[in-house]
Structures are given as C-alpha cells and as structure tokens.
Design a protein that fits this description.
The protein has helices at residues 25-36, 48-57, 70-75, 91-100, 118-129, 143-149, 162-172, 193-221, 226-236, 244-254, 276-286, 292-305, 307-316, 332-361, 367-373, 384-394, 405-427, 433-445, 452-463; strands at 18-21, 41-44, 64-67, 82-85, 109-112, 134-141, 152-157, 175-176, 182-183, 477-479, 490-492. The chain is of the alpha/beta class and 496 residues long. The structure holds 6-phosphogluconic acid.
C-alpha cells in the first residue's frame, strides 16, 4: 500500500473519505486507484457477496471497507459526504440516487461516473438541488486499465461540489503535459456538460475505430498479412498517428490464439454498441452540426450487425463489373494519409458540435481545456490532441479547427492520400464510409458557392418556403410564382 500522494483537504478523522456504489470491474478498479492514492473508501454493492469477495481480495487493508447497506456506507463518511456511482447508466442511476437521498444532508455530493445521457444528468442535478445535494455528472474514460491507473475525468454539474472533489479526482486521474504532471481532469461546466463532453469523446472514439477498421480492410484487400499490418500500425504509432487506438490495433493484429490462429480472423464481424455514438449523432443533428464521420461510423456498426443479410446480399448484388479498380494499388502512405486526414476532419466536426452545444446550453465550455482532458487516460488519447489544445490556446475564439494553420498544413499534405484512397476503394467496390464522408465534408466545406440554391428553389416551388437572393441583403426573403406567369420574385416578410 502506498501513502496518500494527494490527501483530501477536508479529510476528517471521524469519517471515511469517499463512498463508491457499484463494484463491477470499473468500480473495483476506481476504488483500488483511490486507495492507492491514500483515500479511505467505503464501498457498497447490491450483491453483498461481490463486496465481500472484493474487499477480501484487495491489498489496501482498511483503506477499503465494505458495507452491507447503503445507510451504513453513508454513515461511515465524513462531511460533506462524497459518493461516486459506477452503475449501469439509465434507470439504475435513478434507483441508486433514490435509495441514497434519505440518508444524505445539505451539501453532500453525488458523483455519477457512468456513461449517463447528459440530459439525465441535467435533470438529476436540478432535482437533487431541491434537496440541497450537489450532483456531479462525471464522464470517466479509459476502460478498466484507465480506472485503475488513471482515467480521463470530465466532471460537470453543481459547481459548489468542485472544491470538495477536485484534489481527489485530479489525484486519481491520468497525467499529461511535458512534465507528465497536468491532470486530465478539470471542471467542464454546469448541468450535463461533463457527460456531454464524454459523449462527444465516445462519438469520436467510434469514428477513430471505423477509420482504423477501413485501413485494415484496404490493407487486407491488398493481400497484407495480419502480422504485416501489425507492423504497419506499429510504425504509424511512432509518428503523427501515435495514439492508444493505433497501438492496440497493432497488438490485436499480432495476437494469435493458443492454436496459432490469428485471433482477429475468427472474430465475427458484427460490431456492438451501447448507444453513446448514436446519442452523439442525435445531439449533433439537433444542434445543426454535421458530425457525419461519426454518423457513418454508427451506421457502419449497424450494417455490420446484419450478418446473414449481408451474406445473402453478397450473392445477389454485383460490385464493379467492368474490372475497374480490381487491382487495388494503394500505398501505405496513401492509407496513412487517409487515416490522418479523416481524423483531422472528424475532430473538427466534434469540436464544432461542442462549440454549438456550449452556445445552445450556455455552458461556456473551454474547448482547449476539453482537448487537454483527452491527452491521456482516455480511449481517444493521441499526440494529435496536443495540436488541438495548442490551436485553442493560441486562438481561444478560433472559428473552426480547420482554420488553424496547423490543420490547414496537415490537411493540405494528407488530403491527396485520402482522395486517392476513396477513389481507389470505391472503384474496387470496397466500402469506406468514414473516409468518403470525411472527403465529402471537406470538399463541401471548402466550396464557397455550392448547389443549395437549387434546394431553396425546390422548397420555394413546392411549399413557398421562400429564399434569400445574392443580389439582395441577407435576411430579405423572396418567393417566386414558379408555375404562374413567372416574372419578378416577390419580396415580403416571409418566414423561411
Ligand atoms: C471509454 C469508453 C467506454 C465505452 C466503451 C464501449 O471512454 O472508456 O468510451 O466508456 O463504454 O468504449 O462503448 P460501445 O459499447 O458503445 O462501443
């Protein structure tokens, strides 16, 4: 057992430092992390045997004590009581909160560390404030290993709680920065802001995973063996693509079962999802933000789940029949560029959504600080997040990440490879939804005069929805009598 490296400033001798409800693997690992940092943790789990087994097995002695009832667990804590929930998102969180509140007092703090929907966190903060309880919705990323050794933590909600939990959460979080001493945990904002930022993290995670899966598909189609691909991913992990997901992809591709068979080759190609990617896309759509790469990543997981239907479709539906693109000849540099350019675009889309959410919900999110929280501990950690953090540090009001000089240069050099990759893959009949979506967004975004004038004309034709004109000031709306005598457009106080 190690001594406390960062003891709680409010530690009192009459009570324990923190409670934790939910001893599934994430909960257990977070408890061990807290204990390793010197915190005395009171734990409770619905199934007492799980508590007993865990407490008996752990190596931190009475730094970790189990309780049979929520009431006993709460009574063991010093005030203000700090209780972390790591239970299944959804109705279970409400049930646990309901069972806790009768034993809590003014100023006590509940921290929900699960993957809760941000609107639930906003609702819970408001409801608990009526009881004088400070609710914190904290995104926690990093999986089992992160929970044990340092996750990225994104807390938001009742800001009164922050002085009481800051040292503790920052102590157990991952560290980044030149001296590896900057905690990947900071206050994000009010209401459900913490869970919102975690949700966007997960959406980006879906996008990153799809981008890497497409590279794997293309390299496989070109005849590369799994071990060759493992080497390629490992090499990519030494440079601009250095990231946790590239690193584990290399390890996955190199992995063999006991019988020597490549593990990746025997895994069913049907991806699961628990919903955070879908929530990301729904929210982006609601905010009018085209987070299209993530939308494609969610859609690709859905298509992957149609296992039997895809097998039937393969028999029925032809691919390219003219032989075009049958020899896919992409260089590894092109594919590496495709990964990099697609990621740049995906992150730009993610930060556009965060920016829009910040305005819509009046959260005043610090986008540079969000990028810093993701530099270590979390699933999307990557060197590239330093570049995003730097871009916002240099220009806090940056209109769009893609306008930052680093992004302009990086995209200028990588987008050619992305384009070649999309063209070649498409000609060969191979699906690259994330790459194609990234490229299409890129080309649409950099087109000053697009084709939406036709859409406006169509809307006006069939529904008199009106349109703005290039030869008149913005904000003046016009309607044309398309089927009548034609003639001049009629202006007026139309609503669009
Ligand atoms: C993290 C992850 C984690 C998520 C899993 C599974 O940041 O540690 O995002 O929170 O639950 O990655 O997500 P899906 O089952 O939706 O793929």
């Amino acid at each position: 057992m190690t001594d406390a490296t960062s003891p709680s400033p409010e530690r009192s001798s009459d009570g324990r430092d923190v409670g934790l409800v939910g001893l599934a693997v994430m909960g257990q690992n977070l408890v061990l992390n807290l204990a390793e940092h010197g915190y005395r943790v009171s734990v409770y789990n619905r199934t007492t045997e799980t508590t007993d087994e865990f407490v008996a097995r752990q190596e931190f002695g009475d730094h970790i004590v189990g309780y049979e009832t929520i009431e006993q667990m709460v009574a063991s804590l010093s005030r203000p009581r700090r209780i972390i929930l790591l239970v299944k998102a959804g109705v279970v969180v409400d049930k646990v909160i309901e069972s806790l509140t009768p034993f809590l007092d003014d100023g006590d703090i509940i921290i929900d560390g699960g993957n809760s929907l941000y609107t639930d966190s906003t609702r819970r903060q408001t409801a608990l404030a009526d009881h004088g309880i400070h609710f914190v919705g904290a995104g926690v990323s990093g999986g089992e290993e992160g929970a044990r050794n340092g996750p990225s933590i994104m807390p938001g909600g009742a800001s009164q709680a922050w002085p009481h939990i800051k040292d503790m959460l920052q102590a157990i979080s991952a560290k980044a920065g030149p001296g590896q001493d900057e905690p990947c945990c900071d206050w994000v904002g009010p209401e459900g802001a913490g869970h919102y930022v975690k949700m966007i993290h997960n959406g980006i995670e879906y996008g990153d995973m799809q981008v890497l899966a497409e590279a794997y598909a293309l390299m496989s189609a070109q005849g590369q063996s799994n071990s060759e691909m493992a080497t390629t991913f490992d090499q990519w992990n030494q440079g601009r693509l250095k990231s946790y997901l590239v690193e584990i992809t290399s390890e996955i591709l190199a992995h063999t079962d006991d019988d020597g068979v490549s593990t990746i080759d025997v895994i069913l190609d049907a991806a699961g999802q628990k919903g955070t990617g879908k929530w990301t896309v729904i929210s982006a759509m609601e905010l009018g933000q085209p987070m299209m790469l993530v939308a494609e990543a969610v859609g690709a997981r859905m298509v992957s789940s149609f296992v039997e239907t895809r097998a039937q479709a393969q028999q029925l539906l032809p691919g390219p029949t003219d032989g075009a693109g049958s020899d896919l000849e992409l260089t590894l540099d092109d594919i590496g560029d495709a990964i990099y350019a697609a990621k740049l675009i995906s992150y730009a889309q993610g930060f556009m959504t965060l920016d829009a959410a910040s305005s819509e919900f009046e959260w005043n999110l610090d986008l540079g600080s969000v990028a810093k929280l993701w530099r270590a501990g979390c699933i999307i950690r990557a060197v590239f997040l330093d570049d995003i953090a730097r871009a916002y540090a240099e220009q806090p009001d940056l209109e769009n990440l893609l306008f930052d000089p680093f992004f302009v240069d990086a995209l200028s050099s990588a987008v050619g490879g992305l384009r070649r990759t999309v063209v070649a893959a498409t000609a060969a009949g191979l699906a690259v939804p994330a790459y194609a979506s990234a490229l299409t967004f890129y080309d649409g975004f950099r087109t000053a005069r697009g084709s939406a004038n036709l859409i406006q004309a169509q809307r006006d034709y069939f529904g008199a929805h009106t349109y703005e004109r290039l030869d008149k000031p913005r904000g003046e709306w016009f309607h044309t009598d398309w089927v009548g005598s034609g003639g001049a457009a009629v202006s007026g106080s139309y609503s669009a």
